[in-house]
């Protein structure tokens, strides 16, 4: 999510990061203390396991289905404001931490990339100059982002090395499908079918501030009414579970399974079960 969008006051209140930290419960039979993480900016499924990547103020962490939290991966403590998975690569943006290697950029990371699931990172574009608060990848590999200091959509078709400007867009989140690029904006859900050059309203969609694409290509999101919303293959939206407080991050990990970070912590929501994977301490 970005933090400059001129969204309504209620939406801004929901988008604001409010929780101070999340952590997994201690493992039974050991004195090991789980890592403390603060300000979660994004969650994403690991394409090679059942784990989640958790992008935070202090690096990228992993979270198992059993609630075991580890990290930051590789010891990298950068503030991952923007984060996305593209095939087997991780891409991030944000700000360096106190132990972040200087070559990754300062005061902004630009776009950095890891090809070993976070163990090492390399700068690839806009080093030192740009902080993406919104960063997402489309099914064709196109990357889309919105920087914290601008209102232009930025687009890359070469794995993030070169970026071109698209439409002027104040959006809280982006999601790309085979139908086009969706944006959760002040005026409602928008769709671009020309690779981000222009956007048009999507009729009968709820007002959302978080978006993701489910495996079947339909959308799901978090509404300004404080609830999850799900779209079916005909484009009709259904209101699902209410959340507890503002959602810091959201992702769809299956057609009917979601992970959201709200006042409870990192929560997995399925049709028949809700599990707090990592509660707020």
TrEMBL record:
InterPro entries registered for this protein in UniProt: Glycosyl_F510_1955-like (IPR054817), WD40/YVTN_repeat-like_dom_sf (IPR015943)
Keyword Signal assigned: yes
Keywords attached to this entry: Signal
Presence of keyword Signal: yes
Gene3D superfamilies tied to this protein: YVTN repeat-like/Quinoprotein amine dehydrogenase (2.130.10.10)
Domain of life, per lineage: Bacteria
Signal sequence range: 1-23
Annotated protein name in UniProt: Exo-alpha-sialidase
Annotated source species: Microbacterium hydrocarbonoxydans
């Amino acid at each position: 999510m970005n933090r400059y969008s001129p969204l309504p006051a209620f939406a801004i209140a929901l988008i604001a990061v409010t929780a101070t930290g999340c952590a997994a419960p201690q493992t039974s039979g050991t004195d090991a203390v789980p890592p403390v993480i603060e300000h979660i900016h994004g969650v994403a499924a690991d394409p090679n396991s059942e784990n989640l990547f958790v992008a935070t103020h202090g690096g990228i962490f992993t979270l198992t289905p059993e609630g075991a939290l580890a990290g930051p991966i590789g010891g990298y403590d950068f503030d991952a404001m923007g984060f996305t998975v593209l095939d087997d690569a991780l891409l991030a943006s944000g700000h360096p931490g106190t132990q972040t290697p200087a070559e990754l950029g300062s005061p902004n990371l630009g776009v950095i990339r890891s090809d070993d699931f976070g163990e090492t990172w390399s700068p690839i574009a806009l080093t030192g100059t740009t902080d993406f608060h919104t960063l997402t990848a489309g099914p064709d590999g196109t990357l889309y982002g919105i920087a914290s200091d601008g209102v232009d959509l930025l687009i890359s078709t070469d794995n993030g090395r070169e970026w071109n400007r698209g439409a002027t867009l104040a959006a809280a989140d982006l999601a790309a499908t085979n139908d086009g690029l969706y944006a959760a904006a002040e005026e409602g859900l928008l769709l671009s079918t020309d690779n981000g050059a222009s956007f048009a309203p999507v009729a009968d969609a709820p007002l959302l501030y978080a978006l993701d694409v489910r495996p079947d290509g339909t959308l799901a999101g978090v509404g300004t009414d404080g609830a999850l919303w799900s779209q079916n293959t005909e484009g009709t939206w259904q209101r699902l579970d209410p959340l507890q407080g503002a959602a810091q991050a959201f992702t769809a990990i299956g057609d009917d399974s979601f992970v959201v970070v709200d006042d409870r912590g990192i929560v997995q929501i399925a049709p028949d079960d809700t599990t707090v994977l990592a509660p707020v301490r």
